Amino acid sequence: MNEQSPHVPSRRKVLRSTAAAGTGLGIGALGGIDAQTAAAAAPAAPPETAAGSATVPSRRGATMAGVPFEGRSTVRVGLIGLGNRGNGMIGLYLALPWVRVVAVCDPVREKAERAAAKVVAAGQPAPAVYTHGEEDYENLCARSDIDFVHVATPWDSHFAIARAAMLNGKHVGVECPIAMRLEELWELVDLSEQTRRHCMQLENCCYGRNELRVLRMAHAGKFGRLLHGAGAYNHDLRGLMFSPTYYEGPWRRLWHTRLRGDLYPNHGFGPVANYMDVNRGDRVVSISSFGTPALGLAEYRAEHMPSGDPSWKETYIESDRTISLVQTAMGRVIRLEHDVSTPHPYSRINSLGGTRGVFEDYPERIYIEPDHRNDQWGDFSAYAGEFDHWLWKDHANPPGGHGGMDYIMVYRLMQCVQLGLVPDFDVYDAATWTAPVPLSHASIKAKGAPQEIPDFTRGEWRKARAGMDSARPA
User: Which member of 272, 316, 391, 461 has the greatest number of CB atoms within 10 A?
Assistant: First the structure.
């Protein structure tokens, strides 16, 4: 068994359905993709990349780096997955006058109907509703009146749905993580290049106000030459993972019986990768991971779950605290942490250091020369006027969850689609930010041995290009 890609039984049905969709789609079903591109998209998936190998498969399509959206006056959206996350996001799309929610999909009919009612209440036509089983997303993706698909389903299905969306000619954004296996990441990269459709990790933390301010300060040289950064997802989820109602079944908790590595690196990794221009002048080359014993979930179960609960059949192997060190081509170091199984105040760490100083979050504090001295932390808010991103200046009090960064992400993404702009991040960023999922598992199994991170850009990382530090459109 490939240690990076442990077998997940619940994925079989999903992968079978999407494989059939990929080989059975006619050229006309690809929603505007030309015949030559569609023919390239039809072959079987590329061969699997060996565990820890930096072997780069041959490119079978042109790069998507720097490729703009087509541009359109109205952006038509389909949402797949309407649980906690999807239901919370639909209102943000409805808040944008140039966006129309055309279709919604969830195998739980009540959730889909609740979402459809929100669309109607916002004054839009009733959306099409897809609720006929776990594979009805294929019918949504096959529609000819959708430009962008938002995927907010359990992790097991992210890859399959993203694949179906692109094969049907749709741009697609996927909640974290975008896939769980290294070969799946490569296939999403290849499909994005072949179909000329963007496939993006919907990483809302990249749009946090602090994250964007640090990004602009880093690009202005305030930290000097960058040396190190850190990001994390330290969030006590024990109560939610054992809740009978919060998640649709125990899918998230079950991943703790399957993988030992960092299950959710994106929130911490994405912002730091942006600070360091990863895939835009630097790239990450290796990861070494270490994990503690898995004790937290079992202790919580013993204290809170009755003896007959199905969770007592589960054996947890996921490290309570995973710590990874990522090395970049320029010699920088990024520390990643993951802990959702023990008591801990919420923290994404969000730190950046260079030759002239350092920023640390949770709580926010800064020390850079020559602004500060005597080893006393400075006031980070003092840099808001000069370095806040234009998105936060234009939307000082954004609606929605997570302090407004969900809205900022949706607004900016839909703006790029409408105006025909290059997206702030792309499929290469999605694959890079998610690679620690399988690779940290492999490294922990190998007692911390470094695992090579593939160059998903196939050499394009050497070229400086725009990213999150965007200019306000005219």
Answer: 272
Distance CA 374, CA 65 (A): 44
Encoded tokens for 292: 């503690």
As a whole number of angstroms, the distance between CA 134 and CA 111 comes to 14
Tokens representing residue 194 in the block: 């072949």
List, in sequence order, the alpha helices (H) in 42-141. 84-94, 109-121, 137-141
Integer angstrom CA distances of residue 41 from 30, 147, 165:
10, 18, 12
Strand partners, 330: none
Which of 468, 474, 394 shows the shortest CA–CA distance to 213? 468
Cα distances (Å, whole numbers) of residue 431 to 63, 77, 217, 351, 456:
14, 23, 26, 22, 7
Q: What is the pTM of this model?
A: 0.89
- 373, 299, 310, 400: which is closest to 89 by C-alpha? 400
- Any idea what the Cα angle at residue 53 is, between residues 50 and 55, rounded to 5°? 95
As given in the structure block, the two tokens for residue 246 are 């919060």
Distance of CA 332 to the CA centre of its chain: 22
Is 318's pLDDT higher than 90?
yes
- Looking up tokens 């990269």 gives 189
CA–CA separation, 196 and 353 (whole Å): 37
Burial degree of 23 (CB within 10 A; 0-12, 13-18, 19+): exposed
> How far apart are the C-alpha atoms of 322 and 7, rounded to whole Å?
21
Phi-psi region of 221 (alpha: psi -120 to 50; beta: other; left: phi over 0): left
Look at residues 212, 196, 211, 203 and name the one whose alpha carbon lies nearest to residue 175. 203
Measuring CA to CA, which residue among 367, 351, 336 is closest to residue 275? 351
Residue 90, token pair as written in the block = 């639909």
The tokens describing 128, both together, are: 């099409």
Contact criterion met (CB below 8 Å) for 253 and 311 = yes
The pLDDT value recorded for residue 54 is 57
Asked if residue 432 lies in contact with residue 279, where contact means CB atoms within 8 angstroms, the answer is yes
Cβ neighbour number for residue 314 with a 10 Å cutoff: 16
- pLDDT digit string (tens) for 19-32? 333 333 322 333 33
Task: With beta carbons less than 8 A apart as the criterion, state whether 160 and 179 touch.
Answer: no
Please, what is the end-to-end C-alpha distance for the chain in angstroms?
Answer: 53
